[in-house]
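PT: before anyone asks, these are the final sequences, not the draft ones from last week. 726 residues across everything. Please model them as a single complex and drop the result in this thread when it's through.
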Amino acid sequence: MNHDLSTYRYLVVAEGQFGPLTSKTATSAVRFIPDRVLAVLDSTRAGRTVQDVLGFGGDVPVVATVGEGLPLEPTALLIGIAPQGGGLPDAFRPMLREAIAAGLHIVSGLHVHLGDDPELARLAAERGVRIHDLRKPPADLPVSQGRARLVDAYSVLTVGTDCNIGKMTAGLRIRDALTAAGTRVGFAATGQTGILIEGWGIAVDAVVADFIGGAAERLVLQAAEGSDVVLVEGQGSLVHPGYSGVTLGLLHGSMPDAMILCHQPTRACPYGAGNAYHWMPLPSVEEMIRICEGAIAPLRPSKVIGISLVTFDMDEAAARDEIARIADVTGLPVTDPVRFGAEPLAEAIRRGAEAKRACRASA
Amino acid sequence: MNHDLSTYRYLVVAEGQFGPLTSKTATSAVRFIPDRVLAVLDSTRAGRTVQDVLGFGGDVPVVATVGEGLPLEPTALLIGIAPQGGGLPDAFRPMLREAIAAGLHIVSGLHVHLGDDPELARLAAERGVRIHDLRKPPADLPVSQGRARLVDAYSVLTVGTDCNIGKMTAGLRIRDALTAAGTRVGFAATGQTGILIEGWGIAVDAVVADFIGGAAERLVLQAAEGSDVVLVEGQGSLVHPGYSGVTLGLLHGSMPDAMILCHQPTRACPYGAGNAYHWMPLPSVEEMIRICEGAIAPLRPSKVIGISLVTFDMDEAAARDEIARIADVTGLPVTDPVRFGAEPLAEAIRRGAEAKRACRASA
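LR: through. Structure below.
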């Protein structure tokens, strides 16, 4: 675990893009580690509060410059947006210089690795601060061998009918519900935002393809230490034309005891790249359960034990109707964990964990 | 297409490891581009012929030093073995220096990129020779968008119950059979040995995980130009605990019209890493057909249209019995393309290509 990352207090850069749909990492930081977000930098929205811009987040200020944020005593600068192409925008370089000069560590989820930038690496070394590239994978990953199936903890992977459909959020909400009731939970973060929130993890979409499963295996083995339940953050979808390889590697590397399926009732086609995938209808929840269970069946039996919906774009009555309908056709617990709470899913996981423990104890 | 690679005449380095099971790339070079293998370097077997060591390959000499091979006038040195760990063995460095000094280009399938080695890069630049790292992916790969489904050519992917089960060999044998009968075939190489043989391609297991499908899509679009049939070299297996992510990404990126399933009747468990996977039985051919067709069904319909067996470890009567049995249970053409010829599979592909052409013409 990277203890630095889990203690940093952030000045979050979202220059020109701060908003609920345009700054995923910044928005997730506000949502999931609010106590450690001291200010957001966006000169085009300076003077407002985070609440003004996002609709939540309280009176954390939006500032125009790094210097304006420094009196709040951040310990790190977080790049909270993902510019087109993944590179470092020229406009960011002066901010990074100023932050490093002020003794702030740098945390980045960009595709390009800032630690490999000669100027920034030199400045950081001279000032004695660290550059954390959240998407940079370890250099020594193995090919997975199926060892994650052997952990004592009960392991659960969030899967989805699509990418960008609430797999990380569902996992974190379930984690909170389990933890509140006394279950010891290890959260295996597999994407940059999850790593930022948890303080450790591996961005499995950024590893060399042969090592997707090996990255997942390593995460589960580590998260299982001292845990009753391991929650693995899912990525992509087994039917997404662009990302399915990452998803299957993650499923076969993590070898979960069970899965939670994430779904958005209003979504018709796979997400991404404009309308690039609008030639393909998404499967129904029932079909997707069969696809997920079928994909891991040759390696081990594993079942979908609950459904997590994204319903923010439905009125409450329609959302509750859809939850009841899906619960009826699947026979599984269903909720929107953000809107209606994660307890039904947490309860399904507690029951599964208890059954695994009882089975092992009787062996 | 890299025209250099397709014209090089090789001195093949297999130092200490030349043999049918220990030098996969060297052995494949002898098998598939015999006219361009002038000598094999292995000081522990020097003085013998390739035929002596492999049981095929004729009187191509095994030599002890680079200098001993130079009178045969090779234009490139090929590293034909894959040492543990993928790095460059210390013993190879003097050979590479000597080869570069003699004006030979360098071709390598090692995990480590020789072009990034400061000494070798400098020597090559000074001498005006090229270093080809077969596993180094392009820097500009996209996320796949399913465009490979739109090509006019009939596209076929080799899939398998396991990795290392004849997917490249089946593809090359089928290519030869189709070409001999006048079909224009584009071969999309996806692994280092296929790239060596074809002179172009992308090692899909070496790309960043998000871009597996994008690499496959690009290969199919390129191979389809001027071709009646595209044969895509498969990798891994949808049920292999270590490599399945690469396999699904390749399937969804290549969007094939049809699949050829490769299988070894005597194999019980997934291949690799000693006995690491001996906790898991491989699926039967019938089960694997369902798995492959089911994995692409949400994106498009695509069927397994033939079975390619590896039977070198069965006597001929047993092999013919197994071919007849599998043909009976599947209703598909079945052959061992190395032992009994690829014609039944080529014929199935010709029929499929004709049906696609007729369907398009009537649209």
